[in-house]
Amino acid sequence: MAHGRDSHSGALDNMGANGHNNLPAPADFSGGAGRWRMRQKEGKRNRVVFLGGPLPAEGIKNAFRGRGNGLYKLRFIPRAEGFSHAEAEGLTALFITAPLPGADWREFVKGFKFMNAAAPVIVVAEREDEELCLQAMDEGADDFLSSEAPDFALKLPLALRKAAARQAGSAGRNRLENIFFENHVRWLAFLDAITDFIFITDEQQRIIKVNSALAGAYGKHPKDVTGMKSRDLLGRGLSMELEAIRRQNQKASQPVEKKINNDYYLVSIFPLRFENQDMTIYFLKNITEMRRLKEQLFHSDKLASIGLLVSGVAHELNNPLTGIIAYTELLKMRKGVEQGGEVIGKIMISAERCKKIVENLLTFSRQQALSKSFESVNDIIDRTIELRNYWLRLGGIEVVRDYGAVPTLFVDAQQMQQVFLSVLINAEQAIADARPPKGRIVFATRFDGAAKKASVTISDNGAGVPEQIADKIFDPFFTTKSVGVGTGLGLSISHGIIIGHGGSIKVGRTEEGGSRFIIDIPQRQTGDILKEERLEKT
User: Fold this and answer.
1) Which segments of 202-259 does DSSP mark as H helices, in order?
2) pLDDT value at residue 521
3) Are 391 and 424 spatial neighbours (Cβ–Cβ below 8 Å)?
């Protein structure tokens, strides 16, 4: 009777009392029936050792000869001491008797399987013994036979082939298990690489899987979190909110925006049926920054709409203002109005001032393609200040014009006005935050003939720009102002405009602690301009 097994276990430091320890394993050994087929194809013989005894050697040889003449090379070793390192190396299979003369057969099987696990081991006992069979399997034997069985010798080749086939199947399963394990480890690595929060729960809201991002957010390792109730990790309030969202989205997940602590998350929940068990996958994506950018873009779009509205209003105001100025001129030309001449003059000055403001508004709000021409930087600054005169007077801010002799520069006047206005508004807000006794903004212009560049310095006595954020203030959407006060786009756009003109803009601090913006604009020669225009056309 034969007793098979699918796998073996156990290891030993030595082979038993015979002293044959550290037996070498074959160099390249796939094991089982596959190895036999390879040996047949290569014309090699399978080495089979029968260790112990007594065994019917002639009957066994005849049995194997009948299964394939020349296919097997059989060797009979009566005692354990005769089994050497050379015998173990490259062995196809080992039959071992129990008891084993010269050694404990159990220790020998364990040691041989440890050193040469690919070769099947079949234990042969004198009688059918179930307890002995179980012991053999526990020590790593692949099969068990009784020498008392009828036609014992004839059964040996078949038993060997079955053991080899089982060993090959076990090796295949081990390879599959290794593949599954590697895929599992790889999947966990993919999961942990995702910075968004992901976790999976069962029907009792116990956490089955969680990625490192979520576990780390609560100061834990994923292993420590697995098995916990979601409420124990996330808190009862958030856990109940997620459960409510899950119940509302039983069939298809509809992303829900949720505020968790101080951040906003887009929560997606997916039902999962796996191995007859209902599970739920939770995916929480942090959209705090995306939400802020969305609000800033919305505000920017609103500002663009206001610009269009201002343009329309300015156009409507421009027509009656033109009429007021024209009729005021006619009044001045009439005889008999000398007494009211002073009043008419004031009307004329006020109307012309209104008309200038309207013209500046039209210039600033006009959306047009880049159009460079030779312009006076000092004049552009004057027009910019004129736009903010009302708010400057309202805030009690003094504007100092420290103009130098600066030649005309080849610039887009509208864009340069946008830059100066953006810096001016920032200065106003900084002064409002600092609340000095008297607000002061200085526009200074200079020209460096050697470097062929004009410099515009805009200084204030406001709160100043902290050093730790000085390198960030030109980043898009970066702002230190509260919601609704600034968009974080003004200085970023200004930086782009100055760079587009081949210049530079940088920020520093004044001795009083306020901000100092230094804008350098190169002087372009006519030859350079014509060359640039030719390149643009080509």
Assistant:
1) 212-217, 222-225, 230-234, 236-248
2) 93
3) no
CA neighbor of 78 nearest in space, from 54, 105, 46, 113: 54
Residue type, 108: F
* d(C-alpha 439, C-alpha 140), whole Å: 92
Alpha-carbon radius of gyration of the chain: 46
Confidence of residue 73 (pLDDT cuts 50, 70, 90): confident
d(CA 448, CA 516): 19
- Can you tell me which residue has the tokens 């030595």? 14
φ, ψ for residue 56, nearest 5 deg: -75, 85
Query: Reduced to 3 states, what is the DSSP secondary structure of residue 440?
Result: strand
Class of residue 196 by CB neighbours under 10 A (exposed 0-12, middle 13-18, buried 19+): middle
> Residue 440: its pLDDT value, please?
94
Which amino acid, one-letter code, is at 65?
R
Question: SS3 for 412?
Answer: coil
Give the DSSP per-residue string, 181-209: HHHHHHHHHHHHH--SEEEEE-TT-BEEE
| CA proximity to 220, closest of 229, 235, 210 | 210
User: In what helix (H) or strand (E) does residue 348 lie, and over which residues does it extend?
Assistant: helix 341-365
Place of tokens 């410099």: 455
**Cα–Cα nearest to 298, from 21, 489, 46, 79:** 489
Q: Letter for the amino acid at 37?
A: R
Q: What is the pTM of this model?
A: 0.41
Structure tokens at 272: 């999962």
pLDDT tens-digit readout, 314-323: 767 777 877 7
Main-chain phi, psi angles of 77, to 5 degrees: -120, 115
Strand 207-210 and strand 256-260: the pairing is unpaired
C-beta of residue 281 within 8 angstroms of C-beta of residue 200: yes
